Amino acid sequence: MKPATIRDVAERADVSVASVSRVLNGAGPVTEATRQRVLAAVEALEYVPHSGARSLSTSRTNTVGVILPDLYGEFFSELIRGMDVAARALGYHLIVSSSHDDADEASSAIRSMRGRVDGLIVLSPHLGAANLASGLAGRMPVLLMNGGGVDTGRPSIIIDNHGGAVAAVEHLVALGRRRIAHIAGPAGNLEAEARMAGYLEAMAAAGLPTMVVDGAFTKASGQEAGEKLAARADRPDAVFAANDNMAVGALLAFQDAGLRVPEDVAMVGFDDIPLAGLVRPALTTLKINIAETGRNALERLVRLIGSAADTACEVVRPELVVRASSNPLTPPPGLSGAAHTDVQTMSLEGEKL
Amino acid sequence: MKPATIRDVAERADVSVASVSRVLNGAGPVTEATRQRVLAAVEALEYVPHSGARSLSTSRTNTVGVILPDLYGEFFSELIRGMDVAARALGYHLIVSSSHDDADEASSAIRSMRGRVDGLIVLSPHLGAANLASGLAGRMPVLLMNGGGVDTGRPSIIIDNHGGAVAAVEHLVALGRRRIAHIAGPAGNLEAEARMAGYLEAMAAAGLPTMVVDGAFTKASGQEAGEKLAARADRPDAVFAANDNMAVGALLAFQDAGLRVPEDVAMVGFDDIPLAGLVRPALTTLKINIAETGRNALERLVRLIGSAADTACEVVRPELVVRASSNPLTPPPGLSGAAHTDVQTMSLEGEKL
DNA sequence: CTGAAAGCGCTTACAG
DNA sequence: CTGAAAGCGCTTACAG
């Protein structure tokens, strides 16, 4: 038994399908009597409109596609949560497609979205995809969050990774640290590269030697990196990790190695995932309001779909949040009840684009 | 300029739309010459088929809907990752809808999926939604993961929460702990209730007094619960938290309060999220292979869509993984390089349903 | 206020 | 091998 269609409802209510459609969409004039009959028929038949068919007529799907690279820990769940909240408030659905770590996969994912979504949010930390998005998506509105740090002349949100990294290093330098290592994100990832570039530049500006170890944005990779650093003869006295996930991994590795954080090694991460404020010592980081950024992205895309003119390149400036992992003066935990009482914020003057 | 349609391609290639369709779907016979002309036209026009229209004709969307309660930390990102991997391998898309903490919201989310998806995976830890899923979804295949622990006679995957909780308590009792507290999950959540029931039953069986404090499955709620427990006169010597997220929160609260884990308080969680093995001390937990469960759910739903007969109620039995948080004999960290070397596994004889 | 009809962009028997 | 035509389930001017 197939589900009821609008025709079944029309027959049972003894009206035309046009009237059923009007009642259901609250569009166009209908008698109260007609209305009641239609509603009764809908009820009786347990009719639910077929959104695919509706989409074909209206050429609107009320669905937004999100192309993600991969799901590293809490960053992406926070981001999706923010998008989902906004989507529901605006009557949109979210179709997610993740694990696109190379441009080809991302491109085929984008193609297969046509006719399925009204617009796309593309997180493509790999160079090619930015272009792909514009070409492949055809006339579909696309909001880029590709982390390139370059204004492409199309609607986008970028994080000031470079400025954030500089702020991280300057903070550590100000604490008197000199052997500052960097745990890098995956090669070829534009976010990771921008953070590394900021690190290198700030170190050069401070006249300090650099020390970079590879990572992959995962906790496990951060842990490995931490083990390597802890074992070095010229062990660093501070570490700036390209994201919080890795910073947490490294933190644990240092503690396992018997090192004290921040006394022996100060730590700074990037992102401010929920976990950052919870680990001990709490992690100093460059805060991005992740869920908020997701919400904003979704809302902006919906405005774009509503054909708002928009080619802006919005820059999110991460904010340095100093916590115990880089603050020897922090009172020991236990004196400070809640998780966030040991937070102090510094404003960050980011780079101009 | 609107995107090219199949008619545009047909005209340019000077064939019928039927031929274009055949070429594109690799279905039906076509001359190589026709094939080439069509492909050239597709290329020239940058044609991408409109999946909405295709869905309407074939009544297949190649999309699966996932209804989630809310995104608490890593559990759901792991689950979605597993589903996404399987979906892509099978040529399916994933449409996710989260934050459905009450039955009404879940039900409207389910309705709006009609015509948009070929089947549904419903995680509804609240009672009503299980019925809703069957009614509302009409003839659409639905795989339930509602955590009720009851075989509803429809395709489902349930976690043996009760058995897992019993195993957790028995483990703590075997260690000689007597004042074993439970940090409960959100009220009305079936998973949480089953875990609590297992705790209460096992405690009664051991002749021990119970001690329950509320939580909400989040790290922050676990931390608050931990603070409360640490402050009590009859402070527990062991805690079983209804999930790892809360266990980690409580662990940090205990450490902030100057308590040693596991010496003063042993800890056991539930889920085995990636973080569980990384915190210090590493967390003993009831392991569910989360991503694997997600993959399995997706694959099973796709089989259902392919009209496989299936009314099985599959039971996932969590496995007790003993780590340092409940094992005073564990060598101190630092002697044990990698994160997982301090893991020992015990087989768990779960309850029969 | 209401209905008949065209159309959204595809696929799929059915003839030829 | 190929094309004309019907149909998937809706919406939306257009008449009436």
- Terminal CA distance of chain A reads 60 Å
Residue share in helices of chain A?
Answer: 40-55%
Mean pLDDT score of chain A: 86
Provide the succession of SSEs of chain A: HHHHEHEHEHEEHEHEHEHEEHEEE
Strand order of the largest sheet of chain A: 2-1-3-4
What kind of assembly state do the chains in view correspond to?
homodimer
Molecular shape of chain A: elongated
Q: How much beta of chain A, percentage-wise?
A: 5-15%
Low-confidence stretches of chain A: 331-353
Q: In total, how many beta strands of chain A?
A: 13
Task: Kindly name the structural category of chain A.
Answer: alpha/beta
Radius of gyration of chain A: 25 Å
Helical run tally of chain A: 12
Largest interface: A-B, 62 and 63 residues
Largest sheet of chain A: 4 strands, parallel
Descriptive notes:
Two copies of one chain form a homodimer. With 353 residues, chain A is of the alpha/beta class. Chain A contains twelve helices and 13 strands. Chain A has helices at 6-13, 17-25, 32-45, 51-58, 73-89, 103-111, 127-136, 161-174, 190-205, 219-231, 244-256, 290-305, and strands at residues 63-67, 93-97, 119-122, 142-144, 156-159, 180-183, 211-213, 238-241, 266-268, 285-287, 313-316, 319-322, 344-346. In chain A, helix 1 (6-13) crosses helix 3 (32-45) and helix 8 (161-174) runs parallel beside helix 9 (190-205). The longest helix of chain A is centred in the N-terminal third of the chain and has 17 residues, at 73-89. The first copy, chain A, is elongated. The first copy, chain A, binds a DNA duplex (16 and 16 nucleotides) through helix 2 and helix 4.
